[in-house]
């Protein structure tokens, strides 16, 4: 392979993937590693848990702005230079996140971190795909799957362990040595093919960039705060939604008509890319949604701490890792569409298994469906990336990866917002149903109330004992209502995985492309 200077490199393509994997791993890990540490950060900054969610959303907004701009910056300064610059910005901002002393400072540094990290995943995907011939892209995507699937899964585990045993700033400090190593290896191992080198007379799409910022910012605010404001029952949510839609429409009109646009929409003419990307958007929504609500269930209803809730989700990472190894070894001998359909089926099965949860479960009841979900996610996500990009030319890969990762980012944000709303609304519905049974006309309720009153009466007067018994029953009712809401939400995730299976059936398989080629 030729370097920028025209020299030849003898490095193996697998070795050249190391800095790409390290960089992408940092970015994806930071999407979820802070989830379990939010209560601790909220306490350090003396803010509410609701306000602390800006620590997560500011990161997503900033990275979402950069992702579709990747192709432009690669043309402006060269892909290798932009990749290294992104790692440096991400690493420096990680240090600033760790020393933040207030919520505004944390949000600003997380925005900077998102700007630096937003390019790492699409660039990593494009570089990895280009290094390998089409017939070996399944193997390359198996390695990339270590980042896409496993990093967000181990994030809560690692974040919980670090927060419990050290303190929350170290979830950001761990990026520093990884970033330094990634910069060194990138300088030494990576190169720019001719179409990825710096180009002359590159102009920025200022109008498109402005519309993109407005669209993503308004949309993320609506998704993050809409449920708390009763969605479209609030005037400001309606106006924010209007501006989000307006900015989005203008953005896509600009991208279609302008010559020097941020993204090239022609890539959507490729049906493999369009259908594969749509399937990935839904899968990303399910992945991040489940990663958001399962720790809430474990910590809020089961009484797990940050580390134990993360540890209970570890089987998902084990299942994903074992599947990645399987796909990397013999996955190329199996039809990719078969793998994707099988993976989506396993995802739906794990979702339906989580629908059977109750407040008396053991850890194994969480571990088994999590393991199956990890297997299903790796089995479906890795081959669908290969299928969606196999019909594209190498020079289209950087732009396509940027567009695809932008939409996946949006899918994750929308999926998380949907399940958050579902849990809130379904909990109210279940509470309304259950409270109807807490009357003097219900013999079971009176029997339980009498038993609890008798227990409390051993140390309290009868009136206090009766009040404590009613309070205990009411709390149990709230727990059951929330439990029902979580079950309903997991069912929605399971159904979503089934619904997108027909999309996969219309995607061309690699065998067909080889025959036509």
CATH class of the largest domain: Mainly Alpha
- What's the alpha carbon Rg, rounded to whole Å? 25 Å
Report the average pLDDT across residues.
Answer: 81
**What would the principal axes of the Cα set say about the shape?**
globular
Elements, N to C (H/E) = HHHHHHHHHHHHHHHHHHHHHHH
Would you report the number of β strands? 0
**What is the domain tally?**
4
Spatial separation of the terminal alpha carbons: 24 Å
* Estimated helix fraction: over 70%
Number of helices: 23
Describe the structure.
Helix content is 76%, strand content 0%. With 517 residues, the chain is an all-alpha fold. It has 4 domains: 204 residues, MFS general substrate transporter like domains (Growth Hormone, Chain: A, Up-down Bundle), CATH 1.20.1250; 55 residues; 192 residues, Growth Hormone, Chain: A (Up-down Bundle); 53 residues, no CATH class. Helix 4 packs antiparallel against helix 12 and helix 9 packs antiparallel against helix 15.
């Amino acid at each position: 392979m030729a370097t920028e200077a025209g020299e030849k490199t003898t490095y193996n393509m697998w070795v050249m993937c190391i800095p790409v994997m390290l960089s992408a791993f940092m970015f994806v890990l930071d999407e979820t590693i802070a989830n379990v540490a939010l209560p601790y950060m909220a306490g350090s900054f003396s803010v509410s848990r609701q306000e602390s969610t800006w620590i997560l959303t500011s990161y997503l907004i900033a990275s979402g702005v950069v992702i579709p701009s990747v192709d432009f910056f690669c043309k402006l300064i060269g892909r290798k230079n932009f990749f290294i610059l992104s790692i440096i910005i991400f690493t420096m901002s990680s240090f600033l996140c760790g020393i933040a002393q207030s919520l505004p400072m944390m949000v600003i540094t997380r925005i900077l971190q998102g700007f630096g990290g937003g390019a790492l995943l699409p660039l990593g995907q494009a570089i990895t795909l280009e290094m390998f011939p089409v017939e070996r892209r399944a193997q390359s995507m198996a390695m990339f799957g270590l980042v896409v699937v496993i990093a967000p899964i181990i994030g809560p585990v690692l974040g919980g362990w670090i927060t419990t045993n050290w303190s929350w700033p170290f979830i950001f400090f761990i990026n520093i040595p990884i970033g330094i190593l990634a910069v060194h290896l990138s300088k030494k191992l990576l190169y720019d093919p001719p179409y990825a080198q710096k180009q002359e007379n590159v102009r920025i799409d200022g109008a498109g960039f402005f519309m993109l910022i407005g669209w993503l910012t308004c949309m993320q605010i609506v998704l993050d705060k809409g449920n708390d404001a009763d969605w479209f029952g609030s005037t400001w949510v309606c106006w924010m939604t209007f501006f989000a839609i307006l900015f989005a429409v203008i953005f896509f009109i600009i991208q279609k008509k302008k010559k020097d646009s941020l993204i090239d929409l022609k890539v959507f003419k490729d049906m493999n890319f369009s259908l594969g990307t749509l399937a990935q958007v839904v899968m990303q929504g399910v992945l991040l949604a489940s990663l958001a609500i399962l720790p809430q269930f474990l910590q809020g209803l089961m009484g797990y701490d940050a580390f134990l809730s993360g540890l209970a989700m570890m089987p998902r990472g084990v299942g994903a890792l074992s599947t990645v190894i399987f796909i990397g070894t013999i996955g190329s001998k199996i039809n990719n569409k078969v793998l994707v359909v099988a993976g989506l089926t396993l995802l739906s099965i794990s979702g339906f298994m989580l629908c059977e949860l109750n407040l008396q479960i053991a850890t194994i009841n969480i571990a088994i469906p999590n393991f199956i979900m990890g297997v299903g996610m790796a089995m479906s996500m890795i081959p669908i990336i290969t299928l969606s990009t196999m019909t594209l030319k190498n020079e289209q890969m950087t732009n396509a990866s940027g567009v695809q990762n932008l939409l996946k980012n949006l899918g994750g944000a929308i999926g998380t917002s949907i399940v958050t709303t579902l849990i809130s609304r379904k909990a109210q519905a279940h509470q309304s149903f259950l409270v109807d049974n807490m009357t003097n006309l219900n013999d079971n309720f009176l029997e339980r109330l009498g038993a609890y009153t008798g227990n409390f009466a051993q140390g309290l007067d009868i009136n206090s004992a009766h009040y404590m018994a009613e309070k205990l029953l009411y709390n149990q009712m709230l727990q059951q209502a929330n439990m029902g809401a979580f079950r309903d939400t997991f069912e929605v995730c399971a159904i979503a995985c089934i619904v997108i299976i027909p999309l996969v059936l219309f995607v061309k398989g690699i065998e067909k492309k080889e025959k036509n080629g």
